[in-house]
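Hey, quick one: can you model this chain's 3D structure?
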Amino acid sequence: MDFLDWRFAGRERNVIQLSANLERGWRDLSKPGKKHNYWGFDESIKADCQMNSLFRCHLYVAATAPHSWPSVQSFPTMKFLGRLGDNSVSIDGPVMVIDVPLTQGWRLSQQGRPMLYEISDQLFQSMTTEGSIDYRVQLWVVYHGDEKMFVKNEREWGDGFAWVGGRPESNRRKF
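Sure thing. Here's the predicted structure for all 175 residues.
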């Protein structure tokens, strides 16, 4: 397994399953001049699903403990089952698996692309000799491809503010 892999799960291919080897991808994420420095996992992958469309998946996991602790320099072996928004997360040893259902609510990125974004500052934790380590997890899934798959809200100006989806009396959306 690479640092981060993907595959479709489910019979209808409506779930993207991300598999991350946190132990292999664990590294110092420090940046010069930053107030907080972390050890963690920060990888992305392109999930090519069909002609002219793909999903860009990005996973960030960081140990939010003092950078000087020796125990934060490697990912511990653990078991965990939980949820990150509408996505299920499991950890078995050093491998994290996240199931991302494509049927959940999407929103638009600043570039106008459909995206899913979830964050948890304390999704799971581990106990060490130095103390408790909380793990921050961020997940981005951005759809690149056929823009007609998702309908954007049409904004109309009226009475000094914007009507999302058009004026209520018109009951219409532009495609």
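One thing worth noting: The first strand starts at residue 4 and ends at 9.
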